Records
---
Amino acid sequence: MAKPVIVVHGGAWGIPDEQVDKNLAGVEEAVRQGWNILKTSGSALDAVVAAVNSMEDNPIFDAGIGCAHNRWHGRDGRPHHGRRHT
């Protein structure tokens, strides 16, 4: 059986020095939220949603609260399942 792993990142940009600690704390919290789902026998998709929601609720990230809307007035991020798109 494969060992589960959660990988998140806090953005693909040059994080200013004064934001690094908050960014790392937010990433660690997102991992904890996702891991809590997995350790209680939740699905991988539910774990991803929990981790993403944690980051969306954190204003340090350009997601959710601080997101940049796309030209269709929506948000770019969404989870995908292997057999279906959700």
---
Amino acid sequence: MDAHKNDIQSCCKKLSIDFAAVSECFKGSRGADLRVAAAKHFDTKFPSAVGIPHIEINGKEEKQRDFKTLLQTLCATGIQAGACNSVASLQEVIATSSQEVVIV
């Protein structure tokens, strides 16, 4: 956390979150418990080796990692985002009904 302290403080300020509380959580037993739980969840969801970052959209691994493809695929899920207004050729992307988006 110390290596990214300034970035974290900036994010906390923008979101009106108490940095001292975040820091205390991260350094304490609650932070350690959360990191262990996150690691177990990741290992359960992805039991075999995966690349980092591992990108899934609606439960489907996204192998194309270029910006345009990711944006088209995300926008085709029906999300409401300003970036979707600039995406061309959304007809090329198969729309899905689920709204789940996972980026790890």
---
Amino acid sequence: MLLNGSYTQLAGEVDLEIAGLTPDKYDQFLIHGTGDFEGGFIHLSFLDGFFPHAGDKFDILKADQGLTFTQNMFVFSGIYPDFQFDTQFLDGVLVLTALNDADPVPEANTFVLFGSGLVGLWLVAAKRRRLRERVGWGTWIRTTVISSKG
């Protein structure tokens, strides 16, 4: 993202995406002017199966004429909240450095598929139990064997 002029953030959110280590794989907010972040959030989303490891660095904000931070907070999505990082200002650049390996948060779809599989198994077992109770165990076995031949 490129901004010609100064930028002040008092509230709200700047969304940046990270999908790798090289600058072409992650968003950068480039400001040709001053950058003043007094509030709000910087939201970093990890994409395409990429998760930072200890020592990985990202130049996420650059301001030609200076960059100031006061009460800004970083918010991450796609990783567990135990991810630790450090920030440094180097020549008008905010560098974020991973202090530990980030662990991915399982996607909701994984839980949905697993849960529906369990429900399906439970329904099949309940149907078989009801059938056994209704016709008796011996009749159920004979019915199953006969119907599998036909």
---
Amino acid sequence: MPGATALSVAVLSAAVLGAVVFSIPAPALAGGDPPYLSELQSTRTMVLTVDSRASLLVCSAGMVATHPRPREACKALVMVDGDVARLPARPEILCTMQYQPVSVTATGIWDGRLVRFEHTYGNPCTLRAEGGPVFAF
């Protein structure tokens, strides 16, 4: 049910962005005190999908996520400043050339920037080698 998955991801993404916006006091949204802007600029939240599975990753203190390995995934994203395309490949993982495509997405806010990443890996092993803990769910 690809349509249902897309709808679930869209709803989850909207919920994350809504939670971020509604957690900021009204004066900040109305151009009030600049210190409130830091709340949005320090947000590190991503909705991740691997084929039909979705996970919420929140890399901010005290927030709840559905990702099974949030510390490892957040550490990997911090090292590349939230740029999923720059995740380092793990050369110790050797993969066959078997074609069994796996599509992934990452959508969210990282330090005030909107992040959007889409990629199709050749097989699950390649995803593990290149996506690391971020897409390990």
